[in-house]
Design brief:
The protein is of the alpha/beta class and 425 residues long. The chain has a domain of 206 residues: Rossmann fold. It is 40% helix and 15% strand. Helix 4 links the parallel strand 6 and strand 7. Helix 4 runs parallel beside helix 5. The radius of gyration is 21 Å and the shape is globular.
Length: 425
């Protein structure tokens, strides 16, 4: 008979333990909570089970690429709120690899999730835990993707959803999703960090379940980006995992995923993690430059709206990831982000600007000799191309390198022929 896994929820600051079904997203002392998984089966047994579920499909959770790993996510029985999510592709494109300067570059595209971003992986677990804990409503602060995801999962679960977004600073494609899924959307006069402070106050005062990435169950779901990627590679880790960095939830989750995978014997070595920030929203990069002796907060300003965050809530957990994986933090300019995005888009994959930070960062690190040209690298694309169509139209609306502006013509065949000849190689 299979023995059930168990789990502890512990405050990283004071050591307080909370029950798995606690409605709190953070400790009363203000510290961040962490779910400590304690599987009672060997790593080999779990790996064989994960492989079998992937190969045959898992009808009990509609083939979710997240709940395939359920023994290491949320213990206990109860309803599961899933669309499903996960099962995202690994892409290899010579054009992108050549641009970055690598022989072995793979793109893990989380924009293929149901609401168009990686957020769905964390939200399925966090919403499931909230439902099991008896939450009456859920809330989040967001630059767009979190609100879209939470609104969708709350609608599926039948929970009222309250979204706090910075007024005038959210891409229309993301805001439209929150509205369409029925969330009560509050446009806050301030930036993301102001929204997060306000939603934390509201959560404490009004008893609403907070589903931002400070919620430990969000990170549990986001771990599966790494596990699924490892599984797709036959559990052969790359040399590097490169990802965009904003609130630092993914950086934290990736470190936890690698820690647990290595501890269980699912992998023999741990890849290095490179977190890439936009130059206009770079508090984690600044801290990294001091050896993390000082924590920075900045007024964030970047075209990559999904990582436009000046005071990342998961800072301390992300520091642990960088240290444990011998990783690093880099910054790239908006120009580098948009150029990398154009290359990814032009390869027929497409991504939102924040995703392209990973590709731009990998290119920079190759040029600096930090990543060797023969290293194997997985860059994570976090969001779909249509999350921020305004950025696409603005970039291609002007002529220049890698730009593809639309051409207005008269309704004449000769004009069509002229354009075809002009664009022929």
């Amino acid at each position: 008979m299979t023995r059930r896994a168990h789990c502890l929820v512990v405050c990283a600051a004071c050591g307080t333990q909370l029950p798995v079904l606690s409605p709190r997203a953070q400790c009363a002392c203000g510290g961040l909570l962490e779910a400590l998984q304690c599987p009672r089966e060997s790593g080999r047994t779990l790996r064989d089970r994960f492989e079998r579920r992937r190969r045959l499909g898992d009808r009990t959770v509609a083939g979710s690429g997240v709940w395939r790993f359920r023994e290491l996510l949320l213990p206990g029985r109860g309803p599961i709120v899933t669309h499903p999510e996960g099962n995202t592709s690994l892409y290899q494109r010579d054009a992108v690899a050549g641009y970055v300067g690598l022989e072995d570059l793979t793109l893990k595209h989380e924009g293929e999730n149901p609401t168009g971003s990686f957020k769905d992986r964390g939200m399925t677990v966090a919403t499931t835990q909230a439902v099991r804990a008896g939450a009456a409503a859920v809330a989040c602060a967001s630059t767009g993707n979190t609100s879209a995801s939470m609104a969708a999962y709350a609608a599926q679960a039948g929970l009222p959803a309250l979204v706090f977004v910075p007024a005038g600073k959210v891409a229309a494609g993301k805001l439209a999703q929150a509205l369409a899924y029925g969330a009560t959307t509050l446009l806050v006069r301030g930036d993301f960090d102001t929204c997060l402070r306000l939603v934390r106050e509201a959560s404490d005062a009004l008893g609403v379940a907070l589903l931002n990435s400070i919620n430990p169950w969000r990170l549990e779901g986001q771990k599966t980006i790494v596990w699924e990627m490892l599984q797709q590679r036959g559990w052969d880790p790359p040399d590097w995992i490169v990802l965009p960095a904003g609130a630092l939830g993914n950086t934290s989750a990736f470190g936890k995923a690698l820690r647990e995978a290595h501890g269980l014997g699912l992998i023999r070595r741990v890849p290095r993690v490179a977190s890439i920030q936009a130059r206009g929203a770079n508090p984690f990069y600044r801290s990294f430059r001091t050896g993390f002796e000082k924590r920075y907060r900045v007024q964030a300003d970047t075209v990559a709206t999904a990582i436009r965050i000046g005071d990342p809530a998961s800072h301390d957990r992300a520091v642990r990831t960088i240290r444990e994986t011998r990783g690093l933090v880099a910054q790239v300019s908006d120009r580098e982000i948009l150029e990398a995005k154009a290359v990814v888009d032009g390869a027929g994959i497409g991504c939102e600007p924040a995703s392209a930070a990973a590709v731009a960062g990998a290119r920079q690190l190759v040029r600096q000799g930090v990543i060797r040209k023969r290293d194997s690298v997985v860059a994570v694309l976090t969001g779909h191309l249509l999350k921020d169509p305004e950025a696409v139209m603005t970039f291609h609306g002007r002529r220049g390198h890698l730009r593809n502006p639309p051409v207005e013509i008269e309704p004449r065949l000769a004009d069509v022929e002229r354009i075809i000849k002009r664009r022929s190689p």
